[in-house]
Each structure stands twice: as structure tokens, then as C-alpha cells.
Design brief:
- By secondary structure, the chain is of the alpha+beta class.
- It has two domains: about 35 residues; about 100 residues, GMP Synthetase, Chain A, domain 3.
- It contains three helices and six strands, in the order E-E-E-H-E-E-H-H-E.
- The strands form two sheets. The chain has a three-stranded antiparallel beta sheet, with no helix packed on it. Strands 4-5-6 form a three-stranded mixed beta sheet, covered by helices on one side.
- Strand 2 and strand 3 form a beta hairpin.
- Helix 1 packs across helix 2 and helix 1 crosses helix 3.
- It is globular, with a radius of gyration of 17 Å.
- The mean pLDDT is about 95.
């Protein structure tokens, strides 16, 4: 896996993967246009896990109407301001999935499959999650 970053002026950066697909990064300022690198790390972690959860639920033949994850964090107060805790709340809308289906899918994602979450956990960040299922 390879990636590159190009400065675009100000604090705007463009990241590209090996296939040339772009992700833009910015920092907090008055004309901020894109997420910060730390926000994108959280989005990557959430996306990685959601992809796992979708795949697992589909293997269980569950109908997914919607799946949403809210992510909340704590950060160190001193530099480097690493994440010290990440809390994910998964909300599944499904006519046939039960809470146990979602909880097991998230557990497998967080403890076995999600490489992004493993990076957080192996760095010492506490990762926890909660789940809820709503009927469609």
C-alpha cells in the first residue's frame, strides 16, 4: 500500500492513494473546507468497522435499511494530542435483525477484523462501543 500528500496552499492538503483517488485534509480555521487529519482517522476507523458489520450482517442474511455510527473521543491534553478513548455507537435500522446480531457483528469487527480499530487499540487507546437496533 502506498500513498502521497501534496500541499495545496494554506493548510489544505491532498492525499492520493496508489490508484490516484484523492482525500482532502484541512485544519481548523475560518475558511476550513475539509476534515482535519485526526477527524479523518476517526472516520476511517468508523468506516472500516461499518464495512465489517455490513459484511457480517449480510452473511447472516439480515436486511440492512440503514447503519449509522456516532463516534465520540477523549484526547490527551498535551502534545502529541493522541486519542485516549474512542466510543462508537452503532444504530442499525432493520426489519429482521436483533440486537444480538448487531452486537456480535460489532464485536467481531472490533476484536478481529477492523485493522483501523486495531491500530487505535494497540496504541493504548481505549475503544468501546454500544449498539441499538430500530425496526424499519
Amino acid at each position: 500500500m502506498k500513498a502521497s500528500i501534496d500541499w495545496k496552499g494554506g493548510m489544505l492538503l491532498e492525499g492520493k492513494n496508489a490508484e490516484g483517488m484523492s482525500t482532502y485534509f484541512d485544519t481548523h480555521h475560518e475558511s476550513q473546507q475539509y476534515a482535519t487529519p485526526m477527524e479523518i482517522m476517526l472516520q476511517a476507523m468508523g468506516s472500516c468497522s461499518v464495512m465489517d458489520v455490513i459484511a457480517i450482517l449480510e452473511k447472516k442474511r439480515k436486511t440492512i435499511t440503514a447503519l449509522h455510527v456516532d463516534i465520540d473521543t477523549d484526547r490527551a491534553t498535551e502534545h502529541p494530542k493522541v486519542f485516549t478513548a474512542v466510543r462508537l455507537h452503532y444504530t442499525l435500522i432493520s426489519p429482521d435483525a436483533q440486537i444480538k446480531d448487531l452486537e456480535r457483528s460489532v464485536e467481531l469487527s472490533q476484536q478481529t477484523y477492523c485493522s483501523a480499530s486495531a491500530m487505535f487499540q494497540k496504541s493504548g487507546c481505549a475503544v468501546s462501543w454500544t449498539c441499538e437496533v430500530k425496526t424499519a
